[in-house]
Design brief:
Layout: H1 2-30, H2 36-55, H3 63-86, H4 92-99, H5 102-113, H6 120-137, H7 146-171, H8 174-196, H9 205-229, H10 235-242, H11 245-256, H12 263-287
Helix pairs in contact: 1-4, 1-9, 1-10, 1-11, 2-8, 2-9, 3-7, 3-8, 4-7, 4-11, 5-6, 5-7, 6-12, 10-12
């Protein structure tokens, strides 16, 4: 029974990871005609509405939950804003692998927070990832696409989000935190839209496909899969499955956007993917004595 639950949990996490990976191509396509803030306003507005509509009896929070949910919302806002802006200038494939660096950044940040020197695996992973990023971002003349820099900021914000979410979810109901942070991003994106351009209703069908996919599958369905089934999977296995997100993003971008992938990109992508798995070796070794 436990083995069956473990297989079911791994399958659910893999499905959620696939949805998150696919969003890069859809967002890239949408922000070609819609401003990033407008896209985020509609994405998180619809997600918040559906969460409230479906789970209104289960969403409960107090002042502390509201504070922590808003704080999480700041990290999430930084993550999705920088990522969405970056996708206007860089490819979905490149953005996904740079975002994947957050796994390594989490390991580095954790070491600094507990005042412990990073393990040899984390240091090695960081160096390999740095070279890998160079391969996929440096173009002719060793210039860096501005979109890559925006997505790199996204990776730092997402690392902070992962660290704080791990602590906040132990204190508060994850569903309530998700609703609060989603509302926060929606409001922030709406205000930003008013000051930069205006809130516009998208008219293109491909934009609505992107908004609805990101709202329903990436912001609600994937979250529910993670919330319900991750408890059946070890943290090490879950982290390894999550690291497959850039793979799904690259496949979707090649099919949906017809992105051309160079040998240089594949070398850099493989280095980053290997670095992500290497950084997780530390967690696996720590878990062995407890088994």
């Amino acid at each position: 029974m436990n083995k069956n639950k473990s297989i079911l949990g791994a399958g659910a996490i893999l499905l959620a990871t696939m949805f998150w990976g696919m969003t890069f191509a859809f967002i890239k396509d949408a922000v070609a005609t819609l401003t990033p803030f407008n896209f985020l306003f509609w994405r998180f507005g619809i997600a918040s509405f559906l969460l409230l509509l479906i789970f209104w009896k289960k969403i409960k929070f107090n002042r502390q939950t509201l504070f922590h949910g808003t704080f999480l919302g700041l990290f999430l806002a930084g993550t999705v804003i920088f990522q969405t802006i970056g996708l206007r200038y860089t490819t979905a494939s490149t953005a996904s692998f740079i975002t994947g660096l957050s796994v390594i950044l989490v390991a580095l940040f954790e070491s600094f927070l507990i005042k412990q020197w990073p393990s040899i695996y984390v240091i090695g992973a960081a160096l390999i990832a740095l070279v890998g990023v160079g391969f996929i971002t440096l173009s002719n003349g060793f210039t860096v696409n501005q979109g890559d820099l925006w997505v790199l900021l996204c990776a730092f914000c997402f690392a902070g989000y992962i660290l704080f979410a791990g602590k906040a979810s132990q204190i508060h109901q994850p569903l309530s935190l998700t609703f609060i942070q989603s509302i926060f991003v929606c409001i922030l994106a709406g205000i930003a839209s008013l000051f930069t351009t205006k809130i516009a209703v998208p008219s293109q069908s491909n934009v609505w496909v992107a908004i609805l996919f990101c709202s329903i599958f990436a912001s609600i369905f994937a979250f529910l899969l993670q919330l319900q089934f991750q408890k059946y999977v070890s943290s090490t296995k879950a982290a390894i499955i999550f690291s497959l997100e850039p793979v799904f993003a690259t496949i979707t971008a090649a099919i949906y956007l017809h992105e051309k992938l160079t040998v240089q990109f594949f070398i850099g992508a493989l280095m980053i993917f290997f670095a992500i798995l290497l950084s997780e070796k530390r967690a696996k070794q720590k878990a062995i004595p407890q088994e």
